[in-house]
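To whoever is covering the structure queue this week,

Two jobs came back overnight. Logging them here so there's a record in the thread.

Job A:
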Amino acid sequence: MRVAIFDFDGTIYAEETFTLLMKHLKEHPTYRSSYKSFYRSIVPPYIAHKLKLYPSSKMKKRSMQLYLEAFEGRSKQEMDAYFEEIRTKMQQDFNNNVLERLKLHQQENVHILLVSGAYTQFLERVTDGIVFNQIIGTEIFYQDDKVYTKTELTHINGEQKRLKVQEALKGHQIDWDNSYAYGDSFSDMPVLELVGNPVAVRPEEKLQKLASERGWEIMD
């Protein structure tokens, strides 16, 4: 079985998910009262990150944990509705070149995975209409169908992406040499290096340099 693994931020979605999620919370008629508390909580780790005292991976995980606290006690249905509200806006910024490649892989009967650090539930809502065989993301915990933030998130990023992909495909005979992976960031390297056909999508400088050196495809 051949697979095609797609990153989300900077690959399928041309922008940054968390920036849009912050704006959505800030302007939301129901939840915006929680924005100030979220913002106050995120400033200290953000400053530490800018001073290079706090790693990027920890900053992303902490940000996502703090963001969810604005929805403590909300139901899964309410969260679905919240994420659904930004689906149309997000899809306007989807990379059409990447979507065309995804459709081509579907026609070739390639097993397609979306792998991202974003919330899985969010990914399921905003990619509605695009068919993936599997979606791997950061899980939101629920207790009695209510958002529960006392359990620490497992943020899917970097090496975690590779491990989750291998876990999801366990039991399948994968033709890695003839499989594909798409990413925009150097942090996507653990997944890009799994396959015989890695593709750098509008890559950041560090990945651009490495992709050029290795002769990988670079996609706009």
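Job B:
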Amino acid sequence: MNPETGKASGIENAILIDGNMRVSILNYGAITQGWWYKDVPLILGFEDPNEYLTDTRYLGAIVGRVANRISGATFELDGASFELNANEGKNTLHGGDDGLSKQFWEFELIAQNEALLSYVSRDGEGGFPGEIRFEVRICLQGSRLVYSVAAQPDRPTPISIAQHNYYTLGAAEGVDQHTLKLTSNRYLDIDDQGIPSGRVLATNENGLDFSTPNMIGSVPDGIDHYFCFDHDRGPKAPVAELTSPSGLALTVYSDQPGAQVYSGYELKKPRRTSRGVCIEPSGYPNAPNISSFPSIIYTPENPYRQELILEVSKE
């Protein structure tokens, strides 16, 4: 089955359908262009695929090779130093200008509810070592949208992938009144560039406590922090729950150690409301430069895997 060709040159899209759910996927950036529940839009997205070619906010994209930030756009591995593309000041964000979100992926529509995207990142792309074959399987399963990510490197290299949807749950006016609950009571301390210092802080001491439901708008300057998930959470326990005032709810399940939560406050200036919120499970940011963080180095013998499950319900 061939995906439908979109209006943008080279960009193709496919529509996945299962029951009341519908998802639009692009081959550019492995982007989730739209996700609807009974025609209610659940995420932000552009109608015109061309707009993704110049988007700087990673709407709906798969980001990497290494999601989030790497300080100084450099790291060392096995005695060698690697200089990366610096695309956010002196730092690397989401893999740099040649990251996964800026690439055209091979695209196969497997079934009405399932698509497989693949991309081979060549040795040296973005400054990172090693060739990696990436696969992202996207599947609608009733009330669930599932992202299964696999990456096979040919040598040791850092890998950390994040899915970058901006969730709205149908709220065109913004998400400040949405409540968020995280399976977390710790977050990473950061500097004014968003780079982790290596310190892990308690959320209840710094106004970032979402261990019980709290409104997104309760943080005056917006949220852009990495929350560490509780180590003792059960394997089937959710890591995040987002609920809109309408009662539409999103439950997030992940096998990752934490997630960057970004309230989208820079999408509209001056800030009056957060248009959408990102919940991005991934490895710890800047992990290649902080030895106390969980390693994100993967090898041919130990390839990368991630599963992200998003479940929609109506209260």
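Note for Job B: DSSP finds no helices and 27 strands in the chain.

Please reply-all if you pick these up so we don't duplicate work.
Q.
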